[in-house]
Amino acid sequence: MGVTNLTTDDYNRKITKLLGLFHTQDKNAQRFQVGVTPEALQLIKRFEDDIRWDILPKMPEAARPCLLKAHGQAVRFAWDIHAWSHDDPHLHLITEAEMQLGIDLVRASFQHIRYAYDPCGLTAFSTAQKILQSLKNIVDSWEQDKILDDGIDSTTIQQRIGVKSKEVNNALQLLDEHNYLAVYDDATNNLKIALHPDFFAYA
């Protein structure tokens, strides 16, 4: 039964039944245990191993706690799909196909997880905006020409926007990835930055 074929009344009846069975506030309500097929169990075990040995080493360390729970989220997604697809879902095993759909949904989130936890990703976005705005505020043509000719360093940018070096350096790496500027790492915390010759013309 696809969502697109449901009327509002059909949808409401389906959701009401599911909530009544599995999300009641009655502490004495019957509890249900839903099993999985052997194939589905093997599939989720392989996914857990894949996360540990293939996905985790490529992800930011801060994402580790989230990713170690990802196979559990895949099971919950599989259950959601299973519950929607059966009138009495607790009487049927979760299938390999349903488990695969749950895994696919979790896999689709990996790039978002990487960006959210990467020090040079989402957390650097607001600092990157401050850096760009600070540079755009330079309107004196002599100062603009000097920066274009000589570049600017991360310590100067820290002083301009009042943000600590680690956050500034991460934001500069983010801006470099998106070609707003070029960062030259000379093995010190004071990174050197080169701007595009037309940076101020289009700022």
Describe the model.
The mean pLDDT is 92. By secondary structure, the protein is mainly alpha-helical. It is built from 10 helices and 3 strands. The protein has helices at residues 8-22, 38-55, 64-67, 70-85, 96-108, 110-117, 125-136, 141-150, 154-161, 165-177, and strands spanning 152-153, 181-184, 192-195.
Q: What's the quick description here?
A:
The chain has 203 residues and is mainly alpha-helical. The protein has ten helices and three strands; from the N terminus they run H-H-H-H-H-H-H-H-E-H-H-E-E. The mean pLDDT is 92.
Secondary-structure map:
Elements: H1 8-22, H2 38-55, H3 64-67, H4 70-85, H5 96-108, H6 110-117, H7 125-136, H8 141-150, E1 152-153, H9 154-161, H10 165-177, E2 181-184, E3 192-195
Antiparallel strand pairs: 1-3, 2-3
Report the end-to-end length measured between terminal Cα atoms: 53 Å
Sketch the major β-sheet. Answer: 3 strands, antiparallel
Radius of gyration: 26 Å
Mean pLDDT: 92
Strand order of the largest sheet: 1-3-2
Give the uncertain stretches in residue-range form. none
User: What is the helical fraction, as a range of percent?
Assistant: 55-70%
What's the β-strand tally? Answer: 3
> Helix count, per DSSP?
10
| N to C succession of SSEs | HHHHHHHHEHHEE
Class by SSE composition: mainly alpha
List keywords for this structure.
58% helix, Arc Repressor Mutant, subunit A, mainly alpha, three-stranded antiparallel sheet, 3 strands, 2 domains, 203 residues
